[in-house]
TrEMBL record:
It comes from Mannheimia cairinae. Its EC number is 2.6.1.52. Keywords: Amino-acid biosynthesis, Aminotransferase, Cytoplasm, Pyridoxal phosphate, Pyridoxine biosynthesis, Serine biosynthesis, Transferase. GO terms for molecular function: O-phospho-L-serine:2-oxoglutarate aminotransferase activity. The gene is serC. Homodimer. This is Phosphoserine aminotransferase.
Length: 360
C-alpha cells in the first residue's frame, strides 16, 4: 500500500503514536477492562486525566496562574457567540479585525449580541497581506478586540500580536494553536477548536484571564457561561470524554517531542521546504505575501481549474489526500499541521515536480 499523507484542513491528521496508544487502550484503559469512553467523567481516574491534561497544556504553553483553562464543546463557532455574551461590558461594543473568511464569520455571529466596529486588515493586491496591527489609538473605546491568528482558507497567518493597549485581546487560534510559541499574557482570551493541532473534533479549548470571568450577560445559557463552566470544571454537562482523552495524549506526545519550541522548529522547516519549491516554480502560484504565509495551510494553484482538478485526483491516487482547496477559494491547499511529518511534505513536493514536468 502507498504511504498515505493526509493534508486535510480539519478534522486533520493526528500523531501516529497517539492513535496507536489509543488503539492499544481502546478496550482496556488503565487496566479497568473498559474503554475510557465508558467510565464516569466524574470518576477518580478520569478526573486525574483531566487534571494532568490541564497541567500538561499549561506546561506546553507557559500559561500563567491567573488564567483558567476550559475544555468546552461547540467548536470555534460556539465561541463566536460565547465571546460577546461573556465579554460585553459597559462600553457595549467590540472591535473585530477582519482578515478573511473565519474572522468575517465570527463578526457575523457576534453582531447578534454586541455592537461591532469592523476593520479590514487585509490587502488583496498584489498579494494577500496584513496591513495594520496597531490599534492602540482606538482600542480603549471597546470592551475587547477580536482577531483570527490563522485563516485556513486563504493561508494567511498573523505572526505579530496586535497592539490594543490595555483592552482585552481575544484570539481565535483554532488552526495554529501549539504550532509556535506565544506570550499568553498578551491576551485576554484564546480559544481553539481541537481538530487541527489538539485532537479530534468535538472539544474546544478556552484559555481566559481571571478578570474576564463572571461578567456574562444575564441571559447567557449556562453552557456558554465561562464562570459557570469554570466552577463546574468544564463539566456542566457530560463532556466529550474520548476527545478530552485524546487531547491529553497529544499534550504528552508534544512534551515528549520537545514541547512547543521543537514543534515550531519542525513547522518552520516544513513550511520553508514547500514555499521554497513554490517560489522556484513557474507552474504553481501562491498569492500570499511572504510575511503572512501560513505555517499551517499552504495554498497554491496552477491558475487553471481543470488542471487543478487533475492535480487533486492524481495526488489522491498517489496517497496524498485532501489537497483540494476550500470551495470559497478553489485551487489546492496543503494543511501541514503539527502532526504532518516532513516526509509528507517531501512526498508532496516530489509529486508536484512530476506533475509539473508532465503538464507544463
Amino acid at each position: 500500500m502507498t504511504e498515505v499523507y493526509n493534508f486535510s484542513a480539519g478534522p486533520a491528521m493526528m500523531p501516529k503514536a497517539v492513535l496507536e496508544q489509543a488503539q492499544k487502550e481502546l478496550l482496556n484503559w488503565l487496566d479497568q477492562g473498559t474503554s475510557v469512553m465508558e467510565v464516569s467523567h466524574r470518576g477518580k481516574l478520569f478526573m486525574e486525566l483531566v487534571t494532568q491534561a490541564e497541567a500538561d497544556l499549561r506546561k506546553l504553553y507557559n500559561i500563567p496562574e491567573n488564567y483558567h483553562v476550559l475544555f468546552l464543546q461547540g467548536g470555534a463557532r460556539g465561541q463566536f457567540a460565547a465571546v460577546p455574551m461573556n465579554l460585553k461590558g459597559k462600553k457595549g461594543k467590540a472591535l473585530y479585525l477582519n482578515s478573511g473568511h473565519w474572522s468575517a464569520t465570527a463578526i457575523k455571529e457576534a453582531r447578534n449580541f454586541i455592537e461591532i466596529d469592523e476593520i479590514n486588515i487585509l490587502d488583496t493586491e498584489p498579494q494577500l497581506k496584513v496591513n495594520r496591527l496597531d490599534f492602540s489609538d482606538v482600542a480603549d473605546q471597546y470592551d475587547y478586540v477580536h482577531y483570527c491568528t490563522n485563516e485556513t482558507i486563504s493561508g494567511v497567518e498573523i505572526f505579530d500580536i496586535p497592539n490594543v493597549g490595555d483592552t482585552p485581546l481575544i484570539a481565535d487560534m483554532s488552526s495554529d494553536i501549539l504550532s509556535r510559541g506565544i506570550d499568553i499574557s498578551k491576551f485576554g482570551m484564546i480559544y481553539a477548536g481541537a481538530q487541527k493541532n489538539l485532537g479530534p473534533a468535538g472539544i474546544t479549548i478556552v484559555i481566559i484571564h481571571d478578570d474576564l470571568l463572571g461578567n456574562a450577560r444575564q441571559d447567557t445559557p449556562s453552557i456558554w457561561n465561562y464562570a459557570v463552566q469554570r466552577d463546574a470544571d468544564s463539566m456542566i454537562n457530560t463532556p466529550p470524554t474520548f476527545a478530552w482523552y485524546l487531547c491529553s495524549l497529544v499534550f504528552k506526545h508534544l512534551l515528549a517531542e520537545g514541547g512547543v519550541k521543537a514543534t515550531e522548529e519542525r513547522n518552520l522547516a516544513k513550511a520553508a521546504l514547500l514555499y521554497d519549491y513554490l517560489d522556484s516554480s513557474k507552474f504553481y502560484h501562491n498569492t500570499v505575501a511572504k510575511e503572512n504565509r501560513s505555517l499551517m495551510n499552504v495554498t497554491f494553484t496552477t491558475g487553471q481549474d481543470e488542471l487543478n482538478a487533475k492535480f487533486v485526483a492524481e495526488a489522491t491516487a498517489c496517497g496524498l489526500q485532501a489537497l483540494k482547496g476550500h470551495k470559497v477559494l478553489g485551487g489546492m491547499r496543503a494543511s501541514i499541521y503539527n502532526a504532518m511529518p516532513i516526509e509528507g511534505v517531501q512526498a508532496l513536493i516530489k509529486f508536484m515536480q512530476a506533475f509539473e514536468q508532465q503538464n507544463a
